Amino acid sequence: MEERELVKRARRREADAFTALVERYERPMYATACSLLHSEWDAADAVQESFTEAFEHMGELRNPDRFRPWLSRIVVNKCNQKYRDSARLYLVEEPPDRPAPTDPVSREESFDLIQAVRQLDDDHRATVALRYFCDLKIDEVAEALGCPAGTVKSRLNRALAKLQLTLGAGTAGSVRPDVQEVAR
């Protein structure tokens, strides 16, 4: 079923339509949250809270075609809130296992990439996460972050250059395949 129709039905509080939207966007939103936060547990909580908030506020979404950027913005806000809250907490123990990556990239390379993205500053990290993990278009990322499209493009260029330096092989002209995949 088309996203627009699912959103319209979800706005009428049809649970099966909202469930279909959750199933469609659960993985990209989780990948985004993981890249913004340092804990998979916090990322899972942020995504769950985001979907709950989205369901509660579906009536406030004016344009059904803008569901994905709207949801992405909710996820980014929840992640920022969790990040601020975690700065006040003392982490006792890390989760026992990391989930297997869903990308065709190996587990080690995926972990390296996520770690490199986490090292970016907040603006660059959110921009990369929304563009490549949520697969939003430039204008949708701009809408989700509340900034101009030109700002998104410059952040992406700077972030990809930093990722290339962090993950690149020994020479300046070569980029590891996982960074090339992100850049597409």
Can you tell me about this structure?
By secondary structure, the protein is an all-alpha fold. The protein folds into 2 domains: 1-99, RNA polymerase sigma factor, region 2, helix turn helix motif (Rna Polymerase Sigma Factor, Chain: A, Orthogonal Bundle), CATH 1.10.1740; 105-184, Winged helix-like DNA-binding domain superfamily/Winged helix DNA-binding domain (Arc Repressor Mutant, subunit A), CATH 1.10.10.10. The protein has helices at residues 3-11, 15-36, 40-56, 67-86, 107-118, 122-133, 138-145, 149-167, 177-183. Helix 3 packs across helix 4 (67-86), helix 6 crosses helix 8 (149-167) and helix 7 (138-145) crosses helix 8. Mean pLDDT is 80; it is low at 100-108 and 170-184.
Short recap of the structure:
By secondary structure, the chain is mainly α.
Q: What is the CATH homology-level superfamily of the largest domain?
A: RNA polymerase sigma factor, region 2, helix turn helix motif
Q: How many separate structural domains?
A: 2
Runs in which pLDDT lies below 50 for 5 or more consecutive residues are: 100-108, 170-184
Give the C-alpha Rg. 17 Å
Q: Indicate the structural class.
A: mainly alpha
Percent helix, as a range, is 55-70%
Report the β-strand fraction as a percent range: under 5%
Overall mean pLDDT stands at 80
CATH architecture of the largest domain: Orthogonal Bundle
- Give the biggest beta sheet: none
Which word captures the global form? globular
Helix tally equals: 9
CATH-assigned fold name of the largest domain:
Rna Polymerase Sigma Factor, Chain: A
Sketch the topology as an H/E string, one letter per element: HHHHHHHHH
